[in-house]
Amino acid sequence: MKYVVVSGGVVSGLGKGVTASSIGAVLKGCGLRVTTIKIDPYLNTDAGTMSPFEHGEVFVLDDGGEADLDLGNYERFLDIKLTRDHNITTGKVYQAVIDKERRGDYLGKTVQVVPHITDEIQDWIERVSIKPVDGKEGPPDVCVIELGGTVGDIESMPFIEALGQFSYRVGPGNFCLVHVSLVPVLNVVGEQKTKPTQHSVRGLRGLGLAPDILACRSTVPLEEHVTAKLSQFCHVPISNIVNLHDVSNIWHIPLLLRDQKAHEAILKVLDLQRIGKVPREPKLAEWTERANKFDKLKTPVKIAMVGKYTSLSDSYLSVQKALLHASVAMETKLVVEWVCSCDLEDSAAKETPEAHQKAWKLLKGAGGVLVPGGFGDRGVQGKILAAKYARENNVPYLGICLGMQVAVIEFARSVMKLSGANSTEFDPATPSPCVIFMPEGSKTQMGATMRLGSRRTYFLANNCKSSKLYGNASSVDERHRHRYEVNPEMVPELEKAGLSFVGKDESGRRMEIIEIPNHEFFIGAQFHPEFKSRPGKPSPLFLGLIAAASGQLDLLLQRSCGIASLNSTPRCTTNGTVAPPVKKPYTAVKKKPLKSLVNGYYANSNGIQI
Q1: Virtual torsion, Cα 577, 583, 586, 591, nearest 10 deg
Q2: Which positions are annotated as active-site residues?
Q3: Sign of the CA dihedral 202, 206, 207, 208?
Q4: Are 327 and 367 within 8 A, CB to CB?
Q5: What pLDDT digit, counting tens, does each position of 19-37 carry?
Q6: pLDDT at residue 607 above 80?
Q7: What is the pTM of this model?
Q8: Higher-confidence position of 280 and 209
């Protein structure tokens, strides 16, 4: 097994996760089987109980693991399926060591950070790295390990010490350290400064690790004399210094690595340069095509993202990625309009009238509405209003998890005239509990007590839009993360009023997918389809939303099996048999394409590109 460790210096947020994913993509393009591990130095056991404002979204894995969002980057870039053990945290490591101490595994020894914690980290890496993650048998060839945080952080010290020991454990030719650092430009002098990287590398060396390769982040390409200076002061060959400057989209990053021969430097350190006598060269034709296609997109499609964490786009990272995958597949340029759900509420009209007016203007100017998942009652009324607006105005709507639940609540209130309809999460004494706490859930233990991971949904009808989008499959496996569900006792009344529950779990009592049949596109899913979306295999439900918002839904659904005909391979893994195509029972209303282009990637965001 070969190991590539990616560390970071100077500041956080440099893009270590994208760098690690891109290195994996390049190595995979060289014909190697790649797996990944993310090390998070925080004391939490996992990311499940952390606020999105703290650490971005919680990425859910097939086995129910609640992990750091970088595992989502790994899965999307490498098209692999990871497990909860591929995310190592300080909490997990210390818990494992304490459990062993309680069992008496250490034979009465004094348990210390060195060697017991550091040995546990190394054993964990070795144990997890050999797990196949690409659907094939046998261990992978290379494991890319991202060390979270920044060199010098107190909490990451045990991991750096463990990795230093690990480099000797696996021996020369099996360990490569890539250090990601920043080369800033000060506006006062206007030149690229190498001192931050010099200090970062010096600090890393002082902790027992010497970088084999430097990956330098910058706004513009590095000047030659800057690269030479970095080589001289950091003791890294010029050929092993890679510049990762800002690009139009992250799909260019693997191409940047390839063009600068980063693969040759990494493979040389790992002694993997050749297959027999033939040098390994990365095959990245799909990446080149995808990156160039994205840059040429001109026809915009506006999607209003209605949530309460909109001030930090990483809170909905996988949703953004899924929208992007779908928009590229439909050859449209994605524009995400960030709408804070609190600003849509009636109370905001009095307290913050300008924000209220702006939020409604953004919502009404969008071609589609997406309400993602969330917890707590803050901003819920705004989400309900967004669902009502989409339903009443025939605007394409996709509700995910809570987004589906608020759509049910809105339907009960507006269509069934149940003014008190609500979720017991927000009103335990509601007279019309449309959404209830799941019987198997825990109200005292918060961590890992939700309905988590991959679960199967069975379609009840072939002629519904969601079934067609999934290629007329009889069932589909998607990932879940929720404590509340639609009340099965109210389903007959809701269906009688016109709301269709087209997807259910194996028991038939847990509602998974809703649709409004006579609406252009109104779908809610209890699961999170964004977690399994891939650049070359967009999530079917997101594909449907983008198609509806850009006036292409008819075309999409008319194609054979909906999804498979758009590409040579299915866009989403489906389970069960595929029924013959059926005629469409409705005619969707086509929308005129938007004429005005928007400067930047988002119309009203903080400028973060996806």
Answers
A1: 90
A2: 401, 528, 530
A3: positive
A4: no
A5: 999 999 999 999 999 999 9
A6: no
A7: 0.88
A8: 209
